[in-house]
Structure formats: C-alpha cells, structure tokens
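User: I'm curious whether this sequence folds into something compact or stays loose and floppy. Could you predict its structure so I can see for myself?
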Amino acid sequence: MNNLLNFKSYVKFLSRNKAFSAINVFGLSVSLMFVILIMVYVGQGLSTDRFHVNGERIFVIGNENGIGFSWSIGERVAERYPEIEKICPMKNYQDRAVFVGDEKYKADILFTDTTFFSMFTFPLSQGDARTVMLAKNYAVISETFARQTFGSRDPLGEIIRVNDSIHVIVNGVIKDIKNSTIPYSDILVRMDNIRFFNPNLDTEMGDAVGVQVFFQTVKGSDIQSKSEDMEAFLKDIFWIYKRDVFKEVIFTPLKDVYFSGKTLFNVNQ
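Assistant: Here's the prediction. I'll summarize afterward.
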C-alpha cells in the first residue's frame, strides 16, 4: 500500500514539474542511445573477420607508422621464412570507370592474388574457389555489381574492360563482402595486372608501402618471433629500411586490425 502511495506521489510530482521531467527523460534517452551505439560498435568489432576458417593464422605486415608493404618484397619475405604458408597482396581503387561493351560503369576494384579465396572465407555464389582466379585475365564480381550491370543475364563469360590494357573475363560471383576490414569491392582482378594500372606498384622502389600484404602462417608457427631477423633482412634488401625510414617489422593479426586504429586500405593512391 505504501509503495502504491509513493508511486502516486511521484507521478503527481512529475506532472507538476514538467520541465524537470522533460530534462530527466531527455537525459535518460541520450544515455541509452550512447549505450546502444557502444554495444553496436563493440559487437561489430568483435565479429569483424572472425568468420574466416584460418583467421587465427592470418596477419598483415606493416611498420611503426602503419600497415602497408611492398608486393615484390613481400614475396621475397615469404620465400625466406618457412613459417609463412602463403601470401595474398591487395590494392583497392574506388569509383573507377569500367566498360562492358559500350556501357560505362563505376566500380570499386580490388587487385589481389590467386590465394584470396583459399586464405579468406568469402563465399562465392557462382564459380569454383579453387579455379575462379586461376588465369591472369579472370575476374570475380560482386552480386550487387552483377545485378546492376547484367540484370538477370548470367555474368559468367562476360568481358569487362578495366582500362585499355586490362580486359578481364568474369569467372565468378562473390557474395558482397561485409563485416570485414577488407573493403567491399565490385571487381576482383589478379594482382599481376597492376603494372597496367599503376606501374609504380610493380617495382621495389615505387612499391614501398602501397600494398596490403597478408600472410597465412603454418599451424603452430610463431611469425612474431621472426620480427628482428626480418628487420635485419630488410635492412639488406629493401631501400626504405636501408635508409632508416622504417626500422620495425610489425605483424598485426587479422582479428586485431579493427581495434588497432591502423588504416588498412588507403584508397585511390
């Protein structure tokens, strides 16, 4: 009975002090909004890139200033260290003009390697992950880009002109990339073609930190323990370490990239 009387008294107090009530309700609403936003942010971060089957063994290489490396030097590093099972370089460009026949489209392009679908668990809706990028002129397109460009027509076998030197054949369709630090891309093209798109990225001098190089390590190995040895190795072969522009080699686990504060992809460079 006392509780009911107290509640009635409280309601009467609120009705007589409308400004006070409004301020309290507004404050509570704002607080709840921030709690929800934090929960969404943390939930997204904790689930980002956690679906990859081999995710615990995937690292991206960088230095004390951030994430980024050389494609060609990355291959030499992979050859030297048996702890590295495979390598997957990536470089993305946004909002680039591509052509299908005489029709012009805008597309986000990701240059990557044949190891993309064996390293990462991104599902295909069309095509075989083992062979989808086997040939240099094969490409994979997103479901969204397939719908926008080809409608109900089967996109497999269609030709896309990325530029005058890069003509690719659609050999697969990837489900739109989501919940990943690897960005959504309309077209995935073999990294071998980068020399016809950005020649600087195909040389050791020009390609210093312009590419994101992912390594998948052998089960049970510890690539982090090789950092000092790798720094000495790069000091001998890689100009940017020879000149002491960078001194450290840092491997960031894929699962930690989202919360690392490091920029993974610098687009349109």
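Summary: The mean pLDDT is 86. The first strand starts at residue 58 and ends at 63.
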